[in-house]
Amino acid sequence: MLKRALVALAAIAGIAVTASLGFWQWGRGQERTAMQEAIEARERSAPVPVQELVAGADAGALLHRPVVLRGEWIADRTVFLDNRQMNAVPGFYVVTPLRVEGTQAVVLVQRGWVQRDFEQRARLPAVQTPAGTVEVRGRLAPPPAKLYAFATEEKGPIRQNLDLAAFRAETGLPLLPVSVQQVGAPSEGLLRQWPAVGSGAGKNFGYAFQWWAMAALIAILYVWFQLVVPRRPARRP
After folding, report:
1. Sign of the four-CA dihedral 40, 43, 44, 49
2. SS3 for 25?
């Protein structure tokens, strides 16, 4: 009897743990789905007024909203972020500060992607940076994602990563706490087929079903070996 009780307790505990993990993964999937829907709603909203952007509004509340800016490129501060892909081809993300017209504010613009020269890796690709006032259409985004890099301070136009606070201190530019991801047709030698922001909810839902399947398997095995098999009549020799 003690052995049967221990087996029953172990089965109940296994079912409870795996089922609860399934519900936890399901909840995470729903949270990510809701977050993705909120991002898509922001992308469809009206452009952020320039005055609101430069006035120091909450950067988190503005992310993913469209924006239209006029200003002048600070071309000599252009950075080429290495090992970035577009359509599975490695190259550079080109990032240039833009001084917003009528203000002293400067915003980092992720202008697009360009393929690198694989024979001369230190050679900068041909990218046009117009002088004078330009209009940039894009969406407010976090700074470019960081890739693994050695713990050395990066200088020069070609870098692995670009830390906004460090770049602000390096250049002395009054950079805003957000960046702009430029959108539109290819121009100035740059492509702008940015990867879509995915929620990742599908993985959570998949994990949830795996945990629930494990809970069901534990229940089936318990019923079969502890309830069904012992009650089956023994076969006669």
Report:
1. positive
2. helix
Write the DSSP assignment of 182-204 as a string of letters. E-SS-BTTBB--PPP----HHHH
Rg (CA), the chain: 27
Q: Which helix (H) or strand (E) holds 76?
A: none
Closest CA to 95 of 46, 136, 63: 136
Using CA atoms, how far apart are residues 237 and 204, in angstroms rounded to an integer? 52
Give the Cα separation of 78 and 219 in Å (integer). 61
Domain ranges of the chain: 2-39+203-230, 67-182
Extract the tokens encoding 42.
């922001």
Q: Which residues pair with 17 in a beta bridge?
A: none
How many CB atoms are closer than 10 A to CB 156?
A: 8
Reading the chain (237 residues) residue by residue, the pLDDT tens digits are: 788 888 889 999 999 999 999 999 999 999 988 888 877 888 888 888 888 888 876 777 788 899 999 999 999 999 999 989 888 888 999 999 999 999 999 999 999 999 987 777 778 888 999 999 999 999 998 888 777 665 566 778 999 888 888 899 999 999 998 899 999 999 999 999 987 766 678 899 999 999 999 999 999 999 988 888 777 776 655
**Alpha carbons within 13 A on the beta-carbon side of 77:** 22
